[in-house]
Amino acid sequence: MARPAEISTDPDSLAERVAATVIAHPAVARLDGGLFGSVATYLPGRRLVGVRIGQGAEPVELGVVVRLTSRIPDVVADLRREVSALCGGAAVDITVSDVDVPAIAVGPPAPPAG
Protein backbone atom coordinates (compact mmCIF):
# COMPACT_ATOMS: atom_id res chain seq x y z
CA MET A 1 0.00 0.00 0.00
CA ALA A 2 1.28 3.47 -0.84
CA ARG A 3 2.22 5.76 2.01
CA PRO A 4 0.59 9.24 1.85
CA ALA A 5 3.89 10.84 0.80
CA GLU A 6 3.98 8.54 -2.25
CA ILE A 7 0.47 9.37 -3.49
CA SER A 8 0.64 11.30 -6.72
CA THR A 9 -1.53 14.38 -7.12
CA ASP A 10 -1.12 14.31 -10.91
CA PRO A 11 -4.52 13.04 -12.14
CA ASP A 12 -3.07 11.56 -15.36
CA SER A 13 -0.47 9.45 -13.60
CA LEU A 14 -2.95 8.52 -10.87
CA ALA A 15 -5.52 7.37 -13.45
CA GLU A 16 -2.92 5.15 -15.10
CA ARG A 17 -1.90 3.65 -11.74
CA VAL A 18 -5.54 3.04 -10.83
CA ALA A 19 -6.14 1.33 -14.19
CA ALA A 20 -3.09 -0.89 -13.71
CA THR A 21 -4.21 -1.83 -10.19
CA VAL A 22 -7.74 -2.69 -11.35
CA ILE A 23 -6.58 -4.74 -14.35
CA ALA A 24 -4.13 -6.64 -12.12
CA HIS A 25 -7.02 -8.05 -10.07
CA PRO A 26 -7.48 -11.68 -11.15
CA ALA A 27 -11.27 -11.38 -11.38
CA VAL A 28 -11.24 -8.29 -13.64
CA ALA A 29 -11.51 -9.10 -17.35
CA ARG A 30 -11.23 -5.50 -18.53
CA LEU A 31 -12.13 -1.88 -17.89
CA ASP A 32 -15.36 -0.55 -19.41
CA GLY A 33 -16.49 2.99 -20.16
CA GLY A 34 -20.16 2.38 -19.47
CA LEU A 35 -23.20 2.95 -21.65
CA PHE A 36 -21.91 6.05 -23.44
CA GLY A 37 -18.23 5.67 -22.63
CA SER A 38 -18.48 8.42 -20.04
CA VAL A 39 -16.29 6.68 -17.46
CA ALA A 40 -12.96 7.79 -18.88
CA THR A 41 -9.93 9.95 -18.29
CA TYR A 42 -8.63 12.10 -21.13
CA LEU A 43 -4.86 11.85 -21.28
CA PRO A 44 -2.54 13.59 -23.74
CA GLY A 45 -3.27 11.96 -27.10
CA ARG A 46 -5.56 9.22 -25.80
CA ARG A 47 -8.53 8.27 -23.67
CA LEU A 48 -8.24 5.87 -20.73
CA VAL A 49 -11.58 4.08 -20.62
CA GLY A 50 -13.00 2.72 -17.37
CA VAL A 51 -11.36 5.13 -14.90
CA ARG A 52 -12.38 8.65 -13.98
CA ILE A 53 -10.58 10.44 -11.18
CA GLY A 54 -12.99 12.80 -9.46
CA GLN A 55 -12.07 16.35 -8.63
CA GLY A 56 -12.48 17.77 -5.16
CA ALA A 57 -14.99 15.66 -3.21
CA GLU A 58 -16.10 13.70 -6.30
CA PRO A 59 -15.50 9.95 -6.10
CA VAL A 60 -13.22 7.93 -8.31
CA GLU A 61 -15.38 6.11 -10.86
CA LEU A 62 -14.58 2.67 -12.24
CA GLY A 63 -16.35 0.62 -14.89
CA VAL A 64 -15.35 -3.04 -15.02
CA VAL A 65 -16.19 -6.35 -16.61
CA VAL A 66 -15.54 -9.19 -14.17
CA ARG A 67 -14.86 -12.89 -14.54
CA LEU A 68 -17.14 -15.22 -12.62
CA THR A 69 -14.26 -16.65 -10.61
CA SER A 70 -15.17 -14.84 -7.39
CA ARG A 71 -18.29 -13.39 -5.83
CA ILE A 72 -18.99 -10.02 -7.43
CA PRO A 73 -19.49 -8.21 -4.07
CA ASP A 74 -16.09 -9.52 -2.92
CA VAL A 75 -14.40 -8.27 -6.11
CA VAL A 76 -16.03 -4.85 -5.73
CA ALA A 77 -14.96 -4.63 -2.07
CA ASP A 78 -11.36 -5.58 -2.99
CA LEU A 79 -11.21 -3.00 -5.78
CA ARG A 80 -12.79 -0.28 -3.65
CA ARG A 81 -10.28 -0.87 -0.85
CA GLU A 82 -7.22 -0.97 -3.16
CA VAL A 83 -8.21 2.05 -5.26
CA SER A 84 -9.26 4.15 -2.26
CA ALA A 85 -5.88 3.51 -0.63
CA LEU A 86 -4.12 4.44 -3.85
CA CYS A 87 -6.16 7.67 -4.06
CA GLY A 88 -5.61 8.89 -0.52
CA GLY A 89 -8.86 7.54 0.93
CA ALA A 90 -11.17 8.90 -1.79
CA ALA A 91 -14.62 7.40 -2.22
CA VAL A 92 -14.79 4.88 -5.10
CA ASP A 93 -17.91 4.17 -7.17
CA ILE A 94 -17.73 0.93 -9.14
CA THR A 95 -20.06 -0.21 -11.90
CA VAL A 96 -19.88 -3.85 -12.94
CA SER A 97 -21.14 -3.44 -16.49
CA ASP A 98 -20.88 -7.07 -17.56
CA VAL A 99 -19.52 -10.48 -16.66
CA ASP A 100 -17.10 -12.52 -18.73
CA VAL A 101 -18.38 -16.07 -19.00
CA PRO A 102 -15.94 -18.64 -20.37
CA ALA A 103 -16.97 -20.23 -23.66
CA ILE A 104 -18.34 -23.71 -23.34
CA ALA A 105 -17.06 -26.24 -25.82
CA VAL A 106 -19.97 -27.73 -27.72
CA GLY A 107 -19.53 -31.26 -28.94
CA PRO A 108 -21.78 -34.04 -30.14
CA PRO A 109 -24.64 -34.91 -27.81
CA ALA A 110 -24.03 -37.64 -25.26
CA PRO A 111 -25.56 -41.01 -26.10
CA PRO A 112 -28.81 -41.75 -24.29
CA ALA A 113 -28.43 -43.59 -21.02
CA GLY A 114 -29.91 -46.96 -20.91
Q: C-alpha Rg, in Å?
A: 18 Å
The CATH class name reads Alpha Beta
Q: How much of the residues is beta strand, in percent?
A: 25-35%
The helix/strand order is HEEEEEHE
Main beta-sheet strand count, sense and barrel state? 4 strands, mixed
Low-confidence stretches: 1-7
Counted beta strands = 6
How far apart are the termini? 59 Å
Q: Summarize the amount of helix as a percent range.
A: 25-40%
Based on helices, strands and strand pairing, what is the structural class? alpha+beta
Number of helices: 2
Number of domains: 1
CATH topology: GMP Synthetase, Chain A, domain 3
Mean pLDDT across the residues is: 88
CATH architecture title: 2-Layer Sandwich
Report a brief summary of the structure:
This protein has 114 residues and is of the alpha+beta class. The chain is 25% helix and 27% strand. It is built from two helices and six strands, in the order H-E-E-E-E-E-H-E.
What does this structure look like?
The chain has one domain: GMP Synthetase, Chain A, domain 3 (2-Layer Sandwich), CATH 3.30.300. The chain contains 2 helices and 6 strands; from the N terminus they run αβββββαβ. α1 packs antiparallel against α2. It is elongated.
